[in-house]
Design a protein that fits this description.
The complex is a heterodimer of chains A (323) and B (438).
Chain A (H helix, E strand, L loop, with lengths): L7 H6 L13 H6 L6 H30 L8 H4 L7 H8 L1 H32 L6 H15 L2 H12 L5 H6 L6 H4 L1 H25 L4 H10 L3 H29 L4 H5 L10 H11 L3 H33 L1
Chain B lengths: L3 E9 L5 E10 L4 E5 L6 H9 L6 E6 L2 E2 L10 E4 L11 H11 L4 H14 L15 H14 L4 E5 L7 H18 L2 E6 L2 H7 L2 E6 L2 E6 L1 H6 L4 H6 L6 E8 L2 E4 L2 E4 L13 E6 L4 E4 L7 E10 L3 E9 L5 E10 L9 E6 L5 E4 L2 E2 L41 H5 L18 H11 L4
Parallel strand pairs in B: 3-8, 3-9, 6-7, 7-8
Antiparallel strand pairs in B: 1-2, 1-4, 4-5, 9-10, 11-12, 11-14, 12-13, 14-20, 15-19, 16-17, 16-19, 17-18, 20-21
Classes of the chains: A mainly alpha (323), B alpha+beta (438).
Keywords (chain B): ATP-binding, Cell membrane, Membrane, Nucleotide-binding, Translocase, Transport
Organism (chain B): Plantactinospora endophytica
Protein name (chain B): Sugar ABC transporter ATP-binding protein
């Protein structure tokens, strides 16, 4: 799909199909239209991709925005004849205690499991394995990767089995029978779960990034007497800042939209682990309030955009500073 | 400022590769010391073990009067300049130079003063606010040197200091480095695979091969008196000629020729001993006519070296087959024609005899008998002065084999006027030789 975005670039500079193959007098035009297809033909190649994008991305997005300003419901009278309600859904959401709690929980979830958990743990593993080869490294990598590639339903079952009150593995290990982890600490449980689940990506990304740090730079710092922390601060992080930002951008967005915690706690107990994706699911599909759910979805989209913009701006500033 | 003493130093990498093998080495205070050897000989490992970046598996390293074998690199009071300079790209030149001071918690103002002062010594004033990416290779190297100097270490370690510079800058940097080391008077160890660099820079050189030191000595010693055939083959811009020989009385038989046995070794060998006769291409004089005590061979290749040419001769083998090759450096304007026969005479006191790969030398070194004019170094030896050459120029004569044996060197002009009998080889020789003097 991503490929469909690049072909329009060359055809913009061409003067049309006529200028492309036969006209040797305009080297600029020939360079701009490297494939020599001409505008119509190139457009023809792009068209199927564009149609698919419009059908499956643009239309549903617009449809969601439309639904967000109606009182559309899954069942009942409003399902047959939805009415426009303006921004009522948005004001209701923003004024709703449950939405604000959910947003707060989501931020905790993102910061705790993505930024601290996955990125932190992933970097720590990558850093400690950087000079290692052989069975230890392969074993750690295999275990971390395994958590990433297992199906969500399987890992959800594993975690419930681990944390279960009556027959849970953790209680058996710790000798604390009857400890209801999922009821007493639901947010902590899903944060730990998501850290465990997603660390592999960060580990691999940082593992690759650390290869970019020249050993001689680290050794120069060591010869100057720098501690491990000083080496990280002065040599490693300045080198891999771009990787860190890209990694944080991706895992923040993924975690923000992650629905898997629902499989473990179902948002409970008493909505204490009800992050936004779970909240939307409950409102729109369990509760049937499609219009309200669409409004919240749109709010989530906006928050995602803000997160992405912040990271991209930081990344851009870094590039500016380098010049 | 401190001496470095290595005692039975060994390094075995996990997996069993032995990089250093029970090395003993003493580097004096204030010495400019070179570790020289082919790639994989352990020279870089040795340097890194002195720095503390590699941990010795046996033996001790002492810097000054401290045993530093188990100390972290940061506590050894050494500074190292890496081959790639390892400048931090996100820091300015000033920050780079001041970095070791920053780690040592020197206040900002003092750091700034020190960086400015060091930069001025190395001619980096005005570049302090630049980033390494905006500097030339030579400037980057000086920044790396300044960073090493800024905290006044006891020992400087340089890993291939000149290899990242282009040929012209390399000469400049070489002179600069040597002067800087003299001025600072700091003990300095550098690693190089380039024997010319080691000869030019170092006070003393250690030649390494597979984790062992094969010879330690001043450049003159290492060049004049290579202790074994490995060093002999490694040192010198053109490798030494090493020819199988047999002792016969007070002479050696080499490739059918009878050459005088160097005086100091006469007492050390017996008749019939199998030895290796070594002589540098620079210490051979090529004659176009037969002379006594010369190695005769057919000229096969002439390589122009600028002010001189390197001539390769094929010596006759024992049973008429092609034997060993011999290389001779001839001064400008005396290149022989390809295909002709040349007679190479070793200069007095410059040939060496090896038995079982080791140099045979008496208590009085053979090199000591040579005239003082050559004491400066190997470069002076390519001079034409003391070579007894015949008057007639050998060079621009497109001659065939038969005409040379008659020892008459024709003055026929070069170019298209090759004698009728001149085959392809003859004309090729003519045009090849013409390249030099013309």
């Amino acid at each position: 799909m991503a490929r469909t975005t690049s072909p329009p670039e060359p055809e913009t500079a061409t003067g049309g199909p006529a200028a492309a193959p036969g006209d040797p007098g305009t080297p600029l035009a020939r360079r701009a239209d490297a494939a020599g297809l001409g505008r119509a033909l190139a457009g023809g190649f792009v068209l199927p991709g564009l149609v698919l994008i419009v059908l499956f991305l643009v239309v549903p997005a617009l449809w969601t925005i439309y639904l967000g300003v109606t009182n559309y419901r899954l069942t009942g009278l409003a399902a047959a004849d939805p009415q426009l309600v303006g921004l009522d859904n948005y004001t209701a959401a923003l004024g709703d205690e449950r939405f604000r709690t959910s947003l707060w929980l989501t931020l905790q979830f993102v910061f705790g499991s993505a930024v601290l958990g996955q990125a932190g743990l992933g970097f720590a593993i990558a850093w400690s394995l950087r000079d290692r080869h052989g069975p230890v490294r392969r074993l750690v990598e295999a275990l971390v990767l395994l958590a990433w590639i297992l199906p969500s339903s399987v890992v959800a079952f594993l975690w419930i089995a681990l944390l279960d009150r009556d027959a849970g593995t953790l209680n058996a290990l710790l000798g604390t029978p009857g400890m209801a982890w999922l009821l007493d600490h639901p947010m902590l449980a899903v944060i730990l779960f998501n850290t465990w689940r997603g660390t592999a990506f960060s580990m691999m990304l940082y593992g690759a990034a650390l290869q970019n740090v020249p050993p001689s730079h680290l050794e120069t710092a060591r010869l100057a007497g720098a501690s491990t922390w000083q080496q990280l601060r002065d040599v490693v992080f300045p080198r891999i800042r771009g990787h860190v930002l890209t990694n944080l951008l991706l895992i923040s967005l993924w975690t923000f939209n992650d629905f898997t915690p629902f499989l473990i706690t179902a948002g409970g107990p008493e909505q204490r682990s009800e992050i936004l994706p779970v909240y939307v699911f409950k409102i729109a599909l369990s509760g049937g309030e499609l219009g309200f759910g669409a409004a919240i979805s749109f709010l989530m989209l906006l928050i995602n955009l803000v997160i992405a913009l912040v990271y991209l701006r930081t990344l851009g500033q870094r590039r500016e500073a380098r010049r | 400022m401190a001496a470095i003493t290595l005692h039975r130093l060994g390094k075995v990498y996990p997996g069993g590769v032995r990089a250093l093998d029970a090395l003993d080495l003493a580097i004096a205070d204030g010495e400019f010391f070179a570790l020289l050897g082919p790639s994989g000989c352990g020279k870089t490992t040795l340097l890194r073990t002195i720095a503390g970046l590699e941990v010795a598996t046996e033996g001790t390293v002492r810097i000054g009067d401290r045993d530093v074998t188990d100390l972290q690199p940061g506590r050894r009071d050494v500074a190292m300049v890496f081959q790639d300079y390892a400048l931090f790209p996100h820091m300015t030149v000033e920050e780079n130079i001041g970095y070791p001071l920053r780690i040592k918690k020197v206040p900002r103002a003092a750091r700034h003063d020190k960086a400015t002062e060091t930069a001025a010594e190395l001619g980096l004033t005005g570049l302090l606010d630049r980033r390494p990416g905006q500097l030339s290779g030579g400037q980057q190297q000086r920044v790396a040197l300044a960073r090493a100097m800024a905290c006044h270490p006891q020992v400087f370690l340089l890993d291939e200091p000149l290899s990242n510079l282009d040929a012209r800058l390399r000469l400049e940097a070489r002179t600069f480095l040597k002067r800087l080391q003299r001025e600072l008077g700091v003990t300095c160890v550098f690693v190089t695979h380039d024997q010319a660099e080691a000869l030019a820079l170092a006070d003393r050189i250690a030649v390494l091969e597979s984790g062992r030191i094969r010879q330690v000595g001043t450049p003159v010693e290492v060049f004049r008196q290579p202790a074994n055939t490995f060093v002999a083959g490694f040192i010198g811009s053109t490798p030494m000629n090493l020819l199988d020989a047999e002792v016969a009385g007070d002479a050696v038989l080499v490739a059918g020729a009878r050459l005088p046995l160097p005086a100091p070794v006469r007492a050390l060998v017996a008749d019939g001993d199998r030895v290796v006769y070594g002589v540098r291409p620079e210490y051979l004089d090529l004659h176009p006519a037969p002379v006594p005590g010369a190695l005769a061979g057919r000229v096969v290749v002439v390589e122009n070296l600028g002010s001189s040419s390197l001539v390769s001769l094929d010596l006759p083998g024992p049973d008429g087959a092609a034997g060993a090759g011999l290389q001779v450096v001839v001064p400008e304007g005396r290149e022989p024609a390809i295909g002709s026969t040349g007679w190479a005479v070793p200069r007095d006191g410059r040939s060496l005899v090896y038995r079982n790969g080791e140099l045979l030398h008496a208590t009085e070194p053979a090199g000591a008998t040579t005239d003082p004019a050559h004491a400066v170094g190997p470069a002076a030896d390519s001079s034409v002065t003391d070579s007894p050459v015949t008057d007639s120029p050998v060079t621009d004569s497109p001659v065939t084999d038969s005409s040379v044996t008659g020892s008459s060197v024709t003055d026929s002009p070069v170019g298209g006027s090759v004698p009728a009998g001149g085959a392809v080889a003859g004309s090729a020789a003519g045009s090849g030789a013409a390249g030099g003097p013309a």
